[in-house]
Amino acid sequence: MNILYDERVDGVLPDVDKAALLQALRARLPDLEILHQQEELRPYECDGLSAYRTTALLVVLPRHLDEVQGILRVCHERHVPVVARGAGTGLSGGALPLEKGVLLVMARFNNILHIDPAARTARVQPGVRNLAISQTVAPFGLYYAPDPSSQIACSIGGNVAENAGGVHCLKYGLTVHNLLKIDILTVEGEYLTLGSEALDSPGFDLLALFTGSEGMLGVITEVTVKLLPKPQTAKVLLAAFDSVEKAGRAVGDIIAAGIIPGGLEMMDNLALRAAEDFIHAGYPVDAEAILLCELDGVEADVHDDCDRVRQVLEQAGATEVRQARDEAERVRFWAGRKNAFPAVGRLSPDYYCMDGTIPRRELPGVLRAIAALSDEYGLRVANVFHAGDGNMHPLILFDANQPGELDRAETLGGKILELCVKVGGSITGEHGVGREKINQMCAQFNSDELTVFHAVKAAFDPGGLLNPGKNIPTLHRCAEFGAMHVHLGQLPFPDLERF
Question: Which CATH number applies to 233-342?
């Protein structure tokens, strides 16, 4: 599987005079904000998907917005590709640099600019950590709802770029549902504001268009998010099952009963054993699968919902249903789930985290199919995912030092994503497409749909300089991948006005 940029099918990138580019950037930035030596570039050669690495031509770490604007203008004038990077925690290779490009690191823009408790909004720079927002507004009884597992480290700019979710997105939505406004810089260095603090603003919803665009349309410079009041109470039920299929059916039964949990997570035996050894959360390690169901809101409503969910779980075949006895146990239950990824990392030298979504009704069948694929490719798969909205995170365990195992893991991952599409789902729920899933985009979308995506890209970035080779495949790549027939070769971008 060809993951790294391939000019043959991804588009030819212009050759860059590194010395001349370095000189132009030094006219706008202090030397300490420009990295160009090989040993300086190495820490930035990958994001959270560490199996794929490329060394950037240059890395820049600006401190001020006028410097970001200057970088973009220099690169635009010289036709140099730019890849924006936040905290580098992404799991799809979205911030993978280019050998002929500049890596623009926005991590130093990490200030919370304004909190408005009355309006329940926060205005922050893109490098602010997700969790830092909730920590800062906690004294006002507020919090920021999207909570990816990496929330202690991931940045809000990266969350917007990938439309990140988290364990509570079933009830409270993804990043796009918790945004009011963003400020961006275009590839030409022009400032734009997308969205509004007003509840309804006229015109096309460019904020929603930009959210999840993976750095292909502009560089985020400021984000205004919605804040929510902390619920009066939150209770967690843990249910154990003797088969993953029963656990999968129970998920649909809960939603069908008219109950919308704050979070509804599933872990299979391999994942829950790893998490229990790592965190000691109190999980039943003899279960084939567990569900964690959190209910939050007003005390009386939560009490009634807990009783209803317990009844549904027991009818679905749960062998054990346990409610967290106190807040400390509730936190332990969630700590096990949020640390499942690093816990699984103790089982194998490497793992490959997938991110597909499926209709909830398809969970039992898809889990059976994943088990069959695991046997076929001879690689263990641990299932940890947001069951409530069908967002699956199969973790494929492999050893990159063993010849052929990485290739098998990639192929197995692709098969799982294609399975998601086949049953009416999507190849990504919250991690983004990046470089990792570029080929599977050819399976999910036809040539007409991809051409529309390219037209949107061309409206914002006519030269294709922002994060090229990510998210949207060329039709040539899809033809090479074998997912579609392309007539008359590469289609040109339409000649469009910017908006």
Answer: 3.30.70.2190
CA angle, 416 then 278 then 47, to 5° = 50
pTM over 0.85: yes
- Dist CA 320 CA 272 (whole Å): 15
CATH of domain 7-105: 3.30.43.10
Which residue in 298, 297, 357 sits closest to 172, CA to CA? Answer: 297
- The count of other CB atoms within 10 Å of the CB of residue 208 is 14
**Mean pLDDT computed over every residue of the chain:** 94
Identify the DSSP state of 12: P
What 3-state DSSP class applies to 112? strand
Domain covering 112-229 in this structure, CATH number? 3.30.465.10
pLDDT at 3: 65
- Report the C-alpha gap between 91 and 386 in whole angstroms: 16
* DSSP count for the chain of H helices, then E strands: 18, 20
Instruction: Centre a 10 Å sphere on the Cβ of residue 130 and count the other Cβ atoms it contains.
Output: 26
Which residues, other chains included, contact 367 with Cβ-Cβ below 8 Å and sequence gap of 6+? 244, 245, 248, 268, 383
C-alpha span between 398 and 406 (Å, rounded): 7
Residues 6+ apart with CB under 8 A from 88: 44, 46, 47, 48, 95
Q: How many CB atoms lie within 10 A of CB 358?
A: 24
Task: Identify the H or E element spanning 343.
Answer: helix 340-344
The answer to whether domain 7-105 and domain 233-342 are alike in fold is no
**pLDDT band with cut points at 50, 70 and 90 for residue 487:** very low
Question: Judging by beta carbons within 10 Å of its beta carbon (0-12, 13-18, 19+), is residue 85 exposed, middle or buried?
Answer: buried
C-beta separation of 57 from 21 below 8 A = yes
H-state helical runs in 355-398: 363-377
CATH class of 348-422: alpha beta
Determine the 3-state secondary structure of 380 from DSSP: coil
